[in-house]
Write a structure and sequence with these properties.
The protein is mostly helical. Helices cover 83% and strands 0% of the residues.
Length: 195
């Protein structure tokens, strides 16, 4: 047999708990309010410190920010890409297209290996594909203009070297003797520029 029930419904229990809480609050009102004030002041101090430190950090950041870089237009981005490609291309051919092509031909004649010409041709394919993509992008953005003409001269250099190496590669596909005789007769296109 347990204890007798005091409260039979949920509402009675809730009302009894409220009465108990109210009675406790009336007894310990001063202690409870002191504790709440202390906690409130502590939270306010922390918030104030956070605000001060965040304001100081913000001030430091604004003082340390570098000057913003000027925003480039899409055309400038493509032209810069083309300039970088030209630098890499010139490093690859050592800034002398005719000497580079003659060296590739002489290397093939010395080694009798078509792979060296094919590898060189694939690298030049890559350069040619990229410069034409840049050129088409600039043409799409501005049409014919100074930027397009600037890329056109770069594309012409790349195309010439690619065409010359391609000619050697085609002759090498026919046979070693074909390359040897054409080189001796100076009938390759890059050699006609030397005459």
């Amino acid at each position: 047999m347990g204890r007798k029930r005091k409260y039979f419904t949920a509402e009675e229990r809730v009302a009894a708990n409220r009465a108990k809480s109210k009675k406790h609050y009336e007894k310990a009102k001063e202690q409870i309010n002191k504790k709440k004030r202390r906690q409130y002041k502590q939270v306010q101090r922390q918030n104030l410190n956070l605000r001060r430190s965040s304001q100081e950090n913000l001030n430091r950041k604004t003082q340390q920010l570098p000057e913003p870089k000027p925003v480039k237009t899409p055309v400038q981005v493509w032209v810069d890409q083309a300039q970088r490609l030209k630098r890499r291309f010139n490093e690859y051919i050592l800034s002398d297209p005719i000497a580079f092509t003659a060296k590739q031909c002489a290397q093939y004649l010395a080694q009798k290996n078509i792979k060296s010409i094919a590898d060189c041709n694939s690298v030049l394919d890559h350069y040619q594909e990229r410069i034409h993509r840049y050129q088409n992008s600039v043409y799409g953005l501005t049409g014919l203009g100074p930027e397009y003409n600037q890329l056109k001269t770069i594309a012409l250099e790349v195309d010439n070297v690619h065409r010359w190496v391609e000619e050697i590669h085609m002759a090498a596909l026919i046979g070693y003797d074909e390359v040897k005789s054409m080189y001796a007769r100076m009938s390759f296109e890059f050699q006609t520029d030397l005459k």
